[in-house]
Write a structure and sequence with these properties.
Layout (H helix, E strand, L loop, with lengths): L3 H14 L11 H8 L3 H8 L7 H10 L4 H15 L24 H11 L6 E6 L6 H11 L8 E5 L11 H12 L9 H12 L5 E7 L2 H4 L10 E6 L4 H7 L2 E4 L5 H12 L6 H6 L4 H10 L19 H15 L1 H9 L7 E2 L1 H8 L3 H13 L4 E2 L5 E2 L2 H18 L1
Parallel strand pairs: 1-4, 1-5, 2-3, 3-4
Antiparallel strand pairs: 6-8, 7-8
């Protein structure tokens, strides 16, 4: 086989051979698409010679058609011969994933849930990964994406939407332009958001792609970036709970909490060695992945407040990272931000609505509404019996905010 035409003819013969002993003439396109877990349109492009399939995709197709181990090697060699022809247009598969973080630990349950969703067969699978600042949402999404790259033969896209950070969040139009630039580099893109969104949906239609929309500010920022059809997957990460994506768009929710103590110790060991790992240090870090990384790599022994976790890098400095969430909350709901500051006067992680109302000097009903806002922002967690938890390090940040507020009002 020297060209795409030869490859297509041999694949057609393989489809015919795969039905020997049956009353059918060849394996149908629909059946083959189901066997390999790709969209029908994608398989059609590959087996008709319109597009050279990625080597991993061709492997899956010939295996699904019953090729022996020896034949699989021959097909692999044929792919390289065809790929090397100068008259065969290159078909780069986009992959914009950042490198996985070093020392990743835990999250077995969450990774299993995500992996099971890949093969759910429900069209474009939408997943909302939600959790507080520093909880490891991006690390989980990138780890998962690298592990399933081969199951998305048309590519993997990644964009940081900047929902929480030093700059302003990307507009939906800017997010779409970044995604389309990865799939069709150099193409002239329309400026109008509806036209841009339609172009994006058209480009992704019929492709099996994984799209990671990282650091989203809210559901409204994400919604125009969702593909319209196909057999791909979209993973969105956000500090917001993305309830709108779940309720309106059918997203599967994956909520992240701090690591289990054993996993927190493993993360410390992975990064700093056994000498830097201890259950006590993990507890001082609140079992928060970002804090654990800072402690393991920075050599800090632990202490009160957040000063011992300073790094000088805004992306890893806990006070700065927490501040991005607090400022976003203050812009949306100053009253809820006031309650978060007031919680700095409470000693302990556990509290109830009455305590919150007393600290904020408001009614229980109003306090309950403010707490719901803090829960959606992943700054407070609901607990058993109608109570709430203010995670250890977020509590330390609230203490700093309340002290600063007291000084300014004095």
């Amino acid at each position: 086989m020297r060209g795409l035409g030869d490859l297509a003819r041999e694949l057609n013969l393989l489809r015919t051979r795969a039905t020997v002993g049956t009353l059918r003439t060849k394996v149908t396109l629909d059946e083959l698409a189901r066997r390999v877990g790709m969209p029908r349109s994608t398989v059609h492009r590959y087996i008709t010679g319109r597009t050279l399939a990625p080597s991993a995709a061709l492997d899956r197709i010939v295996i699904a058609l019953g090729a022996s181990a020896g034949e699989q090697r021959e097909w692999s060699e044929a792919w390289y011969r065809v790929h090397g022809q100068v008259d065969v247009p290159a078909q780069p598969v986009p992959c914009g994933l950042p490198a996985p973080v070093r020392g990743f630990a835990g999250r077995v349950r969450e990774l299993t849930v995500l992996d099971d969703l890949v093969g759910s067969g429900e069209g474009v699978v939408l997943v909302a990964v939600s959790g507080g600042p520093g909880i490891g949402k991006t690390a989980l999404a990138v780890r998962f994406a690298h592990g399933v790259r081969e199951r998305f033969p048309d590519g993997c896209l990644f964009v940081d939407l900047g929902g929480y950070g030093p700059g302003r969040p990307l507009t939906p139009a800017e997010g779409l332009a970044a995604l389309l630039g990865s799939v069709v580099p150099g193409a002239e893109l329309p400026a109008e958001l509806p036209v841009l969104a339609a172009r994006y949906r058209s480009v992704l239609a019929g492709r099996r792609m994984l799209v990671v929309l990282d650091n989203a500010s809210c559901a409204e920022q994400v919604r125009p970036l969702l593909p319209g059809a196909g057999a791909g997957m979209v993973v969105v990460t956000s500090r917001d709970d993305l309830g709108g994506l779940v309720a309106r768009d059918g997203a599967h929710r994956v909520d992240l909490d701090v690591l289990a103590l054993a996993d927190a110790v493993v993360l410390l060991e992975n990064l700093g060695g056994a000498g830097r790992a201890s259950a006590e240090l993990a507890r001082r870090c609140g079992r928060l992945p970002l804090a654990l990384r800072v402690a393991a790599l920075g050599g800090a022994a632990g202490g009160d407040g957040l000063g011992w976790l300073e790094t000088g890098d805004p992306r890893t400095d806990l006070r700065t990272v927490f501040g991005w969430s607090y400022r976003a909350l203050a812009e949306r709901d100053p009253d809820a931000a006031g309650l978060f500051r007031a919680l700095g006067h409470h000693r302990g992680e556990d509290f109830d609505v009455t305590t919150a109302a007393t600290l904020r000097r408001t009614s229980a009903e109003h306090a309950r509404r403010l707490l719901a806002t803090l829960v959606r922002a992943n700054l407070v967690r609901p607990s058993a019996g109608g109570r709430y938890l203010l995670p250890h390090l977020l509590g330390a940040y609230a203490v700093e905010l309340s002290a600063d507020s007291t000084r300014r009002s004095a």
